[in-house]
Specification:
The chain is mainly alpha-helical and 69 residues long. The chain has helices spanning 2-19, 25-61. The chain has a domain at 23-69. It contains two helices and no strands. The radius of gyration is 26 Å and the shape is elongated.
Length: 69
C-alpha cells in the first residue's frame, strides 16, 4: 500500500517535471551573472553604510582621536 503511494508520487513528480519550461544554458548563465552582480552591489552598499555609521559613532564618541570615554 505505502509502496504504491510512493510510486504514484514519483510518477506524478516526473510528469510535472516534464511540463517545466527549463531555461536554456545561455539564460542560466545570464541570470546567474545578474544575481552575482546584484549581490556584489548590495554588499558594497551595505559595507559603505556600515563604514559611514562606524565613522559617525567614532566621531560622536571621540574614539580614535585621543579622547575616548
Amino acid at each position: 500500500m505505502a509502496v504504491d503511494a510512493a510510486l504514484d508520487f514519483i510518477r506524478d513528480v516526473r510528469s510535472e517535471l516534464r511540463k517545466v519550461a527549463w531555461p536554456s544554458q545561455r539564460e542560466t548563465i545570464n541570470l546567474t551573472a545578474v544575481v552575482i552582480a546584484f549581490s556584489v552591489a548590495v554588499g558594497l552598499f551595505l559595507g559603505g553604510i556600515d563604514y559611514v555609521f562606524q565613522e559617525l559613532f567614532r566621531l560622536l564618541l571621540g574614539i580614535g582621536q585621543g579622547g575616548g570615554l
